[in-house]
Amino acid sequence: MLKSLKILTALAITASLTATTISPTFAQTKVMWGKTELKIGQSGKVTVMKLTKLYTIGKDNSLSESRTVKKGEEFRVYQYKNQNGGLYGIGGGLFVKKDSNIKYETPSKSKLELVKNGASESYYGEWIINQVQAYGVGTYSSEDAESLFGKSLTFTANKASYFGDRPSHIEKVATKPIYTETIISESDFVAKYRIPSDLLGIEAPTITEINVSDSNGHVSTFLIKDDNTLIIFGGGTYFELIRKASKN
Predict the structure, then answer these.
(1) For the segment 179-210, what is each residue's pLDDT rounded down to a tens digit?
(2) Picking from 11-25, 46-60, 207-221, which range would have the lowest pLDDT averaged per residue?
């Protein structure tokens, strides 16, 4: 009897410790639309039918070629511009021309309702700038970087914090953010960012990059380390963000 009581007590203690040490995770309800996941703020998608180009728009509304995409690739559409014969905005400041090289589709109302009512991104929430993860070549001094410690950034469906090459950027908020998710291989990451991912505390074969933009252009860019940690880049410096604990 005494032995059984000790076993039950030990199990109870273990269960209690487990319950208090598990990090919170945030379940996502994925709404699939063909092979594309439907996202909040998305108005449609384009499927590439023939080799075609993506463009950026200059301040004078001129188009500059960004890269070429292949047949079969799909892109979420977040906006439409009635210029140059029609341009679909696919996030990250990129556009594709409305022509026979692509097919544009809109989601059903039922799917849009599912996204509105159930979908939530794992990076949505309030985040605290915790520390510098790594310094690079840029505009931030160590004093600039340390002045941001403890300040908060917010990323939700309706607003997103700016973060860039000046500490004052953190004071601005985008009210209609567009989130563009890109999965990058480790080798491509090193080629793009000129820093090994393990120096940022990310040890994985692929890295998830989130580029935040709005109608005015770039807002911020961050990397997902885990559900409770992000790495945000600005001023040549990589900062660790930790999720702000909710008050219960």
Answers:
(1) 888 888 888 888 888 888 888 988 877 888 99
(2) 11-25
Structure tokens at 81: 């511009």
**Residues in contact with 21: Cβ distance below 8 Å, sequence separation at least 6, in sequence order:** none
Query: In sequence order, what are the residues at sequence separation of 6 or more whose Cβ sits closer than 8 angstroms to the Cβ of residue 240?
Result: 129, 130, 131, 132, 133, 201, 225, 229, 230, 231
Cβ neighbours of 65 (radius 10 Å)? 9
For residues 51 and 99, the answer to whether their CB atoms sit within 8 Å is no
Instruction: Return the structure tokens found at 62.
Output: 């001129």
Tell me the mean pLDDT in the region 124-135: 94
Angstrom distance (rounded) from CA 96 to CA 86: 9
Domain ranges of the chain: 32-116, 125-243
- For the domain spanning 32-116, the CATH number is 2.30.30
Measured CA to CA, the distance from residue 39 to residue 111 in angstroms comes to: 10
